[in-house]
């Protein structure tokens, strides 16, 4: 069984550009997948998710995802603090 690879959005955009060029050259999906060394399911998932995204847009997507993760962690911390303050306010000393 092969080892799974995690591709960055930039790599995916690059491979999708290459896949579209190969498709225009008349190659079938199976031939394209063999050349890109990915499965047909992966190719269709990438096309559905990334479409005709450029490399710059893929880089921006990566940055936005990182920022979104950071903000979610900050919000989770703030919600924990808020819940702790509510519990302290309810407690009688």
UniProtKB/TrEMBL annotation:
The keyword Transcription regulation does not apply. GO terms for biological process: DNA transposition. Keywords: Coiled coil. InterPro entries: Homeodomain-like_sf, Transposase_8, Transposase_8_domain. One of its GO terms (molecular function) is transposase activity. Residues 54-88 form a coiled coil. The keyword DNA repair does not apply. PANTHER family: LOW CALCIUM RESPONSE LOCUS PROTEIN S, TRANSPOSASE. This is Transposase. It comes from Corynebacterium phocae.
């Amino acid at each position: 069984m092969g080892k799974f690879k995690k591709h960055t959005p930039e790599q995916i955009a690059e491979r999708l550009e290459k896949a579209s060029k190969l498709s225009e050259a008349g190659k079938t999906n199976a031939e394209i997948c063999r050349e890109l060394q990915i499965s047909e399911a992966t190719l269709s998932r990438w096309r559905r998710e990334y479409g005709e995204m450029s490399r710059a847009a893929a880089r921006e997507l990566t940055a936005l995802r990182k920022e979104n993760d950071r903000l979610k962690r900050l919000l989770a911390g703030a919600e924990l603090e808020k819940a702790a303050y509510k519990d302290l306010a309810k407690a009688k000393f």
